[in-house]
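C-alpha cells in:
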C-alpha cells in the first residue's frame, strides 16, 4: 500500500458518462442545443480536476459517434481516463432546459447506456491503492446489479485498507424506486467516511429527517465520520469530530441562477479540499464558493471554476 502522500490520484471517481444536450427553451420545441459531456459523476470529477486535483475516472464508454468527443472533453478538463474502457452499444444521453432554474426540465435516454458495461472486474487493488479518496454515487448504483456490486467492491476494499470513501445518495426517482435506492444506500453505508446528502426532500425520503442537524446525528450514529448536508441556496451544514457548523451561501445564493448539477460541483470542491489536507469545515467554505461560481458562470462543465477563480 502506498503512503497517502505519494499516491498518484487525489480522487478516483467511479461513475457513468452521458452526453448532455442543453437548450434555453422547451426541450420539445428548441431548434438548437449545446452539446457536452454530462452526468453527476462527471461533474464531480471535472470540478475537482479544474481546481488542481489529480483525478482519475473509472467508467465505460461506447464506441458510438460520441466516443471521441467524450474522451477529448475528459482530457480537456484534466481528468485521467486510463481506466475508462471502450465497449459496444450506445452512450447514455439526456436533454436539459435551463429556462426555469427552479423547475428544470430533464429528459433522460438510458436505453443501451454504456454504463451497463461497468462491472466489478474493472476494480482492482492497485487502482484503489493509488487514490486518496474513492467516490461513487447512487446514480451509478441505479444502472444495474453489476454496477451496485462494482461500487460495493470498491468501497469495501477501500474501507478495509483505510482509503477514504465518499458517497452522494443523489436520489433520482425517475431512475429507480425509493426502496431500491434505500437498499443500495444501506448496503454501503457502513463503509462510508464522507457522505454528501441534500436536504430537505432527499434526506426526508432516505433517512426520515428534514433538518440538517437531525440528518447529521442520524448518520453519525451509523458510523459516518464526515457529513456534509447540502441545503441548496442556503449553503450547507457540516458535522465532523463531534462538532456541527453551518455555512450559509454568500448573498443567499441569489446570484446562482444556473443550478443544474450545482450539487456535484459542490462535491468536487469539497473532496478536492479534503484531499489537499483541509478539515471538513474549511472544505465547506471552498465547496460553497465552487458551487456559487458554477451557478453564476453558467451551465456545462466549462462553467466550473478553476483554482485561479477562487483566489
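Residues out:
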Amino acid at each position: 500500500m502506498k503512503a497517502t502522500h505519494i499516491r498518484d490520484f487525489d480522487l478516483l471517481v467511479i461513475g457513468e458518462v452521458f452526453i448532455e444536450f442543453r437548450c434555453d427553451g422547451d426541450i420539445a420545441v428548441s431548434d438548437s442545443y449545446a452539446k457536452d459531456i454530462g452526468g453527476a459523476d462527471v461533474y464531480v470529477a471535472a470540478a475537482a480536476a479544474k481546481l488542481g486535483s489529480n483525478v482519475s475516472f473509472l467508467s465505460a464508454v461506447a464506441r458510438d459517434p460520441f466516443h471521441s468527443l467524450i474522451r477529448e472533453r475528459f482530457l480537456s478538463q484534466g481528468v485521467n481516463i486510463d481506466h475508462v474502457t471502450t465497449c459496444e452499444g450506445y452512450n447514455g444521453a439526456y436533454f436539459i432546459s435551463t429556462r426555469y432554474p427552479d423547475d428544470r426540465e430533464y429528459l433522460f435516454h438510458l436505453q443501451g447506456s454504456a454504463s451497463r458495461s461497468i462491472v466489478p472486474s474493472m476494480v482492482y487493488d492497485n487502482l484503489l491503492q493509488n487514490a486518496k479518496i474513492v467516490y461513487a454515487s447512487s446514480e451509478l448504483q441505479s444502472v444495474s446489479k453489476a454496477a451496485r456490486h462494482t461500487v460495493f467492491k470498491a468501497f469495501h476494499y477501500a474501507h478495509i485498507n483505510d482509503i477514504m470513501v465518499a458517497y452522494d445518495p443523489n436520489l433520482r426517482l425517475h431512475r429507480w424506486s425509493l426502496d431500491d435506492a434505500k437498499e443500495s444506500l444501506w448496503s454501503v453505508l457502513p463503509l462510508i467516511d464522507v457522505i454528501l446528502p441534500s436536504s430537505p426532500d432527499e434526506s426526508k425520503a432516505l433517512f426520515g429527517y428534514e433538518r440538517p442537524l437531525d440528518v447529521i446525528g442520524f448518520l453519525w450514529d451509523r458510523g459516518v465520520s464526515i457529513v456534509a448536508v447540502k441545503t441548496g441556496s442556503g449553503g450547507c451544514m457540516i458535522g465532523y469530530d463531534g462538532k456541527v457548523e453551518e455555512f450559509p451561501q454568500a448573498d443567499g445564493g441569489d446570484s446562482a441562477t444556473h443550478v443544474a448539477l450545482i450539487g456535484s460541483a459542490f462535491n468536487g470542491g469539497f473532496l478536492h479540499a479534503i484531499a489537499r489536507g483541509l478539515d471538513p469545515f474549511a472544505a465547506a467554505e471552498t465547496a460553497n464558493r465552487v458551487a456559487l461560481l458554477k451557478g453564476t458562470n453558467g451551465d456545462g462543465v466549462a462553467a466550473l471554476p478553476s483554482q485561479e477563480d477562487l483566489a
